[in-house]
Specification:
Elements lengths: L2 E4 L16 E4 L4 E4 L9 E3 L6 E2 L4 E5 L6 E3 L4 E8 L5 E8 L18 H11 L6 E3 L3 E2 L9 E4 L10 H4 L4 H12 L6 E6 L15 E6 L7 H8 L8 E3 L2 H13 L5 E7 L7 E6 L17 E5 L6 E2 L12 E6 L63 H10 L2 H6 L11 H6 L6 H15 L2
Parallel strand pairs: 1-14, 2-17, 12-13, 12-15, 13-14, 16-20
Antiparallel strand pairs: 3-9, 4-6, 5-8, 6-7, 8-9, 10-11, 10-15, 16-17, 18-19, 18-20
């Protein structure tokens, strides 16, 4: 029987705009983008130039330090633009999609007939190896490493997250194939964590060749990092890999069909989504493809992902490699006179009892990006411990990151977390400290100094 782990700490953010479980549009993209910036620590080597034609599955850039790891186009078409930033940093490869799509045929194959090296070679050649994320640090998995386990979260508790059972309702066979392939890459087990609330109702609890775990509680119960900390905590010298259930399905499709298929159901959510629902889209699709979902006349922030950890890509941006959610939220660039002195604000949510939102626990709120204050002195508080169900001290860890003290970063848990794990600490912080940005800098320093 699966073990049940009930988390007492956490917070569900009651933001309006949850997607109804209905796919209302099939996006036929005109232009898609492959973004090296989706991957931490990557130094890309460009393999195409403007005007080149590519197929879905054709390589467009590689990892400079590990050139066998390729990043491929999700569509067939023509490379229309190479976008660079400061110091010619490669930001995007934009591809104008063909009306009739064609794919590289990698050949359908039975996982049972392949050994570990053959599975790795196919994943790297197809462009799906980057779906495997290595911890510590949240980087692309090292093909030469042997993880002590592979961890998959079969649910998400992030604000307005796509419903896993709906988004992957036709992918059971592909997910099982993906798990069978992943199981060949570790001497340990493939750990899959489920939500206690619907464990009996989800078809994925029937998956084989896995070690099942059941988690209950508020966000971040669905974060794979939180799950790892309760199943098999990471210590210095450990290596584990993580992969999302959506990417596991893509891996399974590669073996079952021989195609690099990055299509997915994408939840269009948020307070400024005119019709929150799902679209059939693809990784790298443009925000322009969901323009009709935007509330007219509003200054809207386009987020690839959720409001806590997603990326502000703008109205001209593109969906991230790992994302199956778009959040539309109002830019909070308006000042509220004496807002702090108004004890009764029924339209505002408070994590404490500052306002009366605690009297209406089922109410959702039309939130925006306003911080309701500015950064101030970083003071000790117990608010972080109330929302972080991990055995670490976030204040001490963040201060160690600010100081660049590697010994203390190790001592206070840098190996166990990435930005998403401390996102709620940033949300509830009374000092408006940017936890995720500081932690990211700390991880970058660790990667540089410990290489």
């Amino acid at each position: 029987m699966s073990n049940i782990i009930e988390l007492k700490k956490g917070l569900n953010i009651p933001i309006a705009g949850k997607a109804v479980q209905k796919a209302k549009k099939v996006v036929i993209p005109d232009v898609v983008a492959v973004k090296p910036t989706d991957f931490r620590g990557l130094v890309p080597k460009l393999l195409v130039k403007e005007g080149d034609t590519v197929l879905a599955g054709s390589p467009v850039f590689a990892d400079k330090t590990k050139p066998e790891i390729l990043f491929t186009s999700p569509v067939s078409g023509t490379v229309s633009e190479i976008v660079r930033g400061e110091k010619r940093k490669l930001l995007e490869i934009r591809i104008k999609a063909d009306k009739e799509q064609k794919s590289v045929d990698f050949g359908a194959v039975k996982v049972a007939s392949l050994d570990e090296s053959q599975i790795k070679d196919l994943l790297m050649k197809s462009g799906l190896w980057p779906a495997l994320i290595q911890r510590p640090y949240g980087i692309i998995a090292d093909p030469s490493a042997k993880p002590k386990g592979i961890f998959i979260s079969a649910f998400s508790t992030a604000p307005l997250a796509a419903n896993t059972e709906f988004a992957l309702r036709d992918e059971f066979e592909n997910i099982q194939t993906g798990i069978n392939a992943l199981a060949r890459l570790t001497n340990g087990k493939v750990h899959v964590s489920f939500n206690r609330e619907n464990y009996a109702g989800t078809p994925f609890h029937k998956l084989e060749n896995i070690e099942s775990h059941i988690f209950g509680g508020k966000h971040p119960a669905g974060n794979v990092g939180v799950q790892i900390s309760h199943i098999s905590p990471i210590v210095k010298g450990d290596t584990v890999w993580t992969v999302s259930l959506m990417m596991t399905a893509a891996i399974g499709k590669l073996f079952n069909t021989g195609k690099y298929d990055m299509s997915r159901l994408v939840a269009v959510t948020g307070p400024k989504a005119a019709d929150p629902s799902y679209v059939k889209g693809i990784a790298g699709m443009s925000m322009k493809d969901i323009a009709e979902y935007c509330t007219p006349g509003e200054n809207i922030r386009f987020i690839s992902g959720d409001v806590l950890t997603g990326t502000n890509v703008g109205a001209d941006g593109f969906l991230g490699f790992f994302d199956n959610q778009i959040t539309l939220i109002k830019e909070g660039n308006e000042h509220e006179l004496f807002g702090w002195a108004k004890p009764i604000r029924s339209s505002q949510f408070s994590t404490s009892h500052t306002y009366f939102s605690w009297l209406t626990p089922k109410k959702t709120y039309d939130m925006d990006t306003n911080l309701h204050g500015g950064p101030r002195a970083f003071v000790m508080s117990d608010v972080y411990s109330k929302v972080l169900p991990m055995d670490i001290y976030p204040v001490y860890l963040i201060k160690a990151c600010l100081a660049g003290d590697i010994d203390k970063m190790e001592k206070f848990g840098i190996y166990e977390v990435i930005e998403e794990d401390l996102a709620l600490c940033e949300y509830v912080c009374p000092s408006k400290i940017e936890f995720q940005s500081i932690l990211s800098d700390g991880i970058s320093l660790m990667m540089k100094e410990m290489a």
